[in-house]
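Internal tracking record. Fields below are filled automatically when a chain is submitted to the structure queue. Please do not edit lines marked as system-generated. If the sequence contains nonstandard residues, flag them in the REMARKS field before resubmitting.
Queue: standard
Priority: normal
Entity type: single polypeptide chain
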Amino acid sequence: MFNLISILIGLVALLLAIPSAIPLLGWGNWIVLPIALVGASIGALSRSDKGRNFCLIVFALATVRLMLGGGIF
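SYSTEM-GENERATED OUTPUT FOLLOWS
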């Protein structure tokens, strides 16, 4: 059950991260990062690690996008 919740939280974070890839909307990644971390922590409580890994990938993508944009853009 925790794995399914983690995947759903990861999907929400991914849907928020997609428009944040557009220039000048990179600040939205600051919203995605805590959501992805919550999903990863919930995924860590489950037996399966798919949800946790998915949230960590979304977290990594948002982090890389923030680094490329200098933290704001």
